Structures are given as structure tokens and as C-alpha cells.
Amino acid sequence: MEKRICISAPAKVNLHLEVYPTEGSTYHGIRSLFVMVSLFDELSVSSISGRQDGEGSCLVEGFQGLRPEDNLICRAHHLFCLRSGRMLPVRVRVDKRIPAMAGLGGGSSDAAAMLKAMNLMLRGEGFSPLSASALHRIAEELGSDVPFFLGTSAAFAEGRGEILSSLPAPPNHTVVLLKPETEVSTAEAYRLLDERGCFQELPVSREELQKALYVDSPNTWCFHNTFTNMLEEEYPLIGGALRELKELEADFSNVSGSGSAVYGVFNEEEKADRAWKTLKRGGKNAWKVKMLAKPPEPVYN
Fold it and tell me: What angle separates helix 132-142 from helix 72-84, to the nearest 10 degrees?
């Protein structure tokens, strides 16, 4: 009998992002404050009965023109089966709602959701599930943002983003996401930073960042993003989107991650609703969301 697991994969916003030079390393160091928000991809993971071969054991519907080896969901499934020692053939249906190449973590969130779903399926097949630390190690192999989506809905990140400190649930702020009609690859964004040498100089302390999020009003937040000035210059549509949010009275606005999506945080629900409706009437890609108190968990359906 086919078993199906459903899970929502949330988007994330970088409220704060400091980027540092590589200094001989392959990767840039970062310090960031992540929060999950209520824009979701929806994954439905079904077991495929009677199939034992490893070839094609993860069939994904909902992606066009993406090779399995380039699909983080398939890679998550492959690594999970390797680490667990159990071949669990699955069919995955993805309802994509988080825009790609937007700095909202959609691919990373899908991968983490897949790991959670596979662990529940492993338990449902009568085997011991992988430990949280084992899942975290797989997530690190998949990408620097993936580990965050296995944890709490807010976290402080260091290293490449994989060194995480869990934080309490964030305030229930309303956020308006705006995706301009342009895309930014993470690799290109970092290349431009390297070219310009416009990196973070003085870090904001973790204590200051936590005070801003949990105590201060958004209109006094000390958060910033190392990418923002460069992206505004290189991508006029991103600069225009930020100006639009400010004109719509966002209490705080910035770029998420390396773009291209921008976001505005509102103290007042009425202002957020008005801003979102104005953007939608103008034909913009906009979403009104909330910061999440806790991450979604997989369930059998």
C-alpha cells in the first residue's frame, strides 16, 4: 500500500547578513540572522511499492528541465538512503510557490523538508530514524542554508551558514515580500562582491541583533545586508523595489540573502495589507506573510 507524507517547506528571510572575504578559503564567511516566513512550497512524498533498484528511485514531479543530480530534493533523497543504509524509492510531487533565485531559500527548504519526510518514512517502515545530528551532517553536504531549515524558525548563523545557534520564536511581525522581474545567482552576487571588495568591516554583536529582533521596533532595527548597496547599483529593479516598499511605509526593508527578493516589515497589519494590495494591483510578484513561530513538520496523509 502506498504511503504518502505531506510537508510544507517555508521560505526564509535574512533580517541581517554580514559577508566577509574568503581570505584564502574556498568560501566566504557570513554572520546572519535567519527567520522562517509563511510562504511555502508543498511537498507530497509517496513510497513506491516493490521497487528495490537504486536507479531512478526518486521521481520528482513539478520541476521542468532540471536534471536529478541538480535537484536538491533528489540529492537529499540519495544521501539519506546512503546514510541510512535503506533504499526507499519515492515519488515526490512539488507545488512550487517560493520563487527561485530570490534569496528566499526555496531549494534549501525543499531539501530539508525531504530529509524530514524521509526520516518519518524510515520510522514508518519499522526502522530507527536518523538522529538530528546525522540529518544535520547530510544537510551540510547539500548546501550552507539547508541546516537552518531543520531547526528552529529563527537562528543566528556563522561560518558558511551551517554553524547555527537556535533562537526563540520571532515576534509575529507581518512581512511583505516583493520579487522584482530579475534574478540573481548566488555565485554572481559573490563574484561582484569580490570584484568590488565591499565587504563587512565591523560586525554587529549577537546581543545587539537579538535585542533588535525581540525588543526594538522594526523602525529602529540595526540590521543590514552586505549585498544591498552593490545589488541596488547592479540591478536597478532591486533598487526600485526597495524604494517602493519604503514609499509604502514599511518600517524596515532590505534585500533577502543575495537577492533578488526584497522584503518590508510592518508594525501595523493594516499598513502591510494596504502595501500588499497596492503591489498586487500593480501586477507585482508580492506576498504578505508572517514570521513563523515554529517550523512545519511532516505528517502522513
Answer: 140
